[in-house]
Write a structure and sequence with these properties.
Length: 447
């Protein structure tokens, strides 16, 4: 299964000395430094502070940092809880790393909302949300990914990323690592040299990834060791090299991956050549399950993937067990559903029910592996001829995104209150995406 670890670029985190400036008076006549206890303010960039980082350093819990249109060459780290960072215009407020810094925005405090802006040209991540000090410092680990060694697992709890465009970043567009209780929604990712959206190392996650578009990435969405109340729902994952993977990986903690719900997504045409090429060469797969267990795939439309619509395999010594494929529609894939176990590690209890499909490997899986299955029933093996992946392009050369929908009332709404735990979706409410949504740019979500 495809895995890309950052092998070439390991740039040091760009540092920006905080600029402390005087801000305008509040409505009650006090300035931000002498405000009444509990008062919340809006800090405008550049009117009240010349940079986003300077404004964030002034903010207190409950404040809104509102950024005017412009291109900002900085890496922003948010270490204050419960502040909102919002752009006045999603496509015109641009945090541009100029390939000189690992991260555009690092969220390292709970209850933070990042909204309505664009992050681009970072050597690692557009937006990183993390409880890991090593990850926040831009330290990629010995093997090139986010192997944090003997650092204890520490979760950042509660976050929101909404209406963010993350494009042409060297690792992930939007990345939640060692984080819980959050939402990634209404966002767009492209040109990520690994994954557009990535959730890693959480258990239980209590994370909802909904109504996003991921295209022209190496992988649209990836969940690694992301387990328990992990929902990927109503997204458009089209035109990547690989649409979606959920997997276990020894490089991160909290093995194995299990208990994710993938529902109501459009996952199609994931064999786009004009995308960043993965080190491991994955291409043409809609959904990949690599050592993941007890996941549910419900009412997704999986179409036009050259290699396979959905493939299940083992990773190293970790088997994929008890995955359920329910009420999905597969069309025009080389193989709709298949599994293969090339090593001694086998999967058990994987099953299908109520799907519209044409081809499986091994043949007749809808009969031989129908749900429910005994927990210890062994899945048959199968193989197929995988297409040769074409060469990719540098992530810096991926096509620029079109304008995306704005955050409602961006300049007039107050700060966003991020709940301690998000409302988790009822998967019964997610319908199969219509075939008409295969049209370019169509959104899939339930809103």
């Amino acid at each position: 299964m495809p895995r890309l670890r950052l092998r070439v670029m390991a740039a040091l985190l760009g540092t920006l000395a905080p600029v402390m400036v005087g801000c305008g008076a509040d409505d009650d006549g006090s300035d931000h430094g002498r405000r009444p206890s509990g008062a919340h303010v809006t800090i405008n960039v550049p009117a009240d502070a010349p940079t986003i980082s300077a404004a964030v350093s002034l903010a207190r819990p409950g404040d809104l940092v509102l950024v005017a249109p412009g291109k900002y060459h900085e890496s922003v780290k948010i270490s204050t809880a419960r502040i909102t960072l919002r752009g006045a215009s999603r496509d015109k407020v641009v945090i541009d790393g100029r390939l000189r810094q690992p991260n555009g925005i690092v969220v390292a405090a709970p209850g933070v909302a990042v909204e309505n802006l664009t992050v681009e040209n970072n050597t690692q991540n557009g937006v990183l949300v993390t409880g890991s000090a090593k990850a926040a410092a831009g330290m990629p680990g010995q093997s090139g990914g986010y192997d944090t060694g003997d650092e204890p697992v520490t979760f950042l709890k509660s976050f929101l990323v909404s209406h963010v465009t993350a494009t042409r970043n060297g690792l992930y567009g939007i990345y939640a690592f060692s984080a819980q209780n959050g939402v990634i929604e209404h966002s767009y990712t492209s040109g990520s040299a690994d994954s557009g959206i990535y959730v890693g190392q959480c258990k239980p996650c209590r994370i909802v990834v909904r109504d996003n578009i991921a295209e022209l990435n190496a992988v649209g969405y990836e969940g690694t060791n992301a387990s328990g109340d992990m929902y990927v729902v109503g997204n458009r994952l089209v035109g990547n090299r690989v649409g979606l993977t959920t997997n276990s990986d020894h490089q991160e903690k909290l093995l194995p991956q299990r208990d994710a719900v993938i529902a109501g997504n459009l996952i199609a045409a994931n064999q786009q050549a004009a995308t960043p090429e993965q080190a491991d060469g994955g291409w043409g797969i809609g959904i990949g399950v690599d050592g993941g267990t007890d996941n549910q795939f419900i009412r997704n439309r999986v179409a036009g993937n050259t290699n396979a619509g959905l493939v299940i395999t083992a990773t190293a010594d970790i088997p994929p067990n008890g995955n359920r494929i329910l009420d999905n529609t597969f069309a025009a894939n080389s193989v709709d559903v298949g599994w293969t176990f090339p090593t001694a590690t086998k999967g058990r209890g994987n099953c299908l029910r109520g799907n519209e499909l044409r081809t499986t490997v091994p043949a007749r899986l809808a009969t031989t592996a129908s749900c429910p299955r005994p927990a210890r029933s062994s899945s048959p093996s199968g193989t197929w001829a995988k297409p040769t992946a074409p060469g990719g392009i540098p992530f810096t050369d991926v096509a620029a995104p079109k304008r995306q929908p704005q955050f409602p009332n961006a300049t007039t709404a107050g700060a966003t209150a991020v709940p301690a735990v998000p409302a988790l979706p009822d998967t019964a409410g997610f319908r199969l995406p219509s075939a008409s949504l295969l049209a370019a740019g169509a959104r899939v979500g339930t809103d």
